[in-house]
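Checklist before submission:
- one chain only
- standard amino acids only
- sequence pasted in full

Submission:
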Amino acid sequence: MEAYKKEFIEFMVDSNVLKFGEFTLKSGRKSPFFMNAGAYVTGAQLKKLGEYYAKAIHDNYGDDFDVLFGPAYKGIPLSVATTIAYSELYGKEIRYCSNRKEVKDHGDVGILLGSDLRDGDRVVIIEDVTTSGKSIEETFPILTAQAKVEIKGLMVSLNRMEKGLDGKVSALQEIKEKYGFEANAIVTMAEVTEHLYNRPYKGQVYIDDTLKAAIDQYYETYGA
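Returned file contents:
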């Protein structure tokens, strides 16, 4: 596992973004772990988060894109932080773009924030986490309605490795099959488990035998 992935797992724990216990997800599934990107709230956290995303995007998509699109609402700060980090780390200027939940009809009109989308733009979508792939169902028509863009791929922070909406393959694999573009993550839940299982971090074991059994049971039902 790459060093930045191990650092990112610890960063999620330190930031109280990745939690372990019992949580009911938006999909109704009861999960032994939960990731909330809304817990990244400080300048230092957002700076580091943007750097981790930029490294993962560069690893998976190189420099072959023009726009980073962050769906409202959580994708807005993600796209801003990552475009800044991309410029600093790789010296390439990427434009950021996000959507509004409601179309604005005065001043800076339209449904987009940040850069406009232009015919021929190559776009990478950035999100916090994809459990079922439902968010892409909402995002894809917004993007394709604005211009003739090429979507290079999706980058999320954590691949939960669960069945998607169709209940057959993972949400990220389902996105690839349905929309034809790559879907990747900074880390997978398997990598999180591998790194934290029975390994003390700052004096605490986050995934012990009991929690590992709960995770294994969860994946027996929902794993892809």
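Reviewer check: The radius of gyration is 18 Å.
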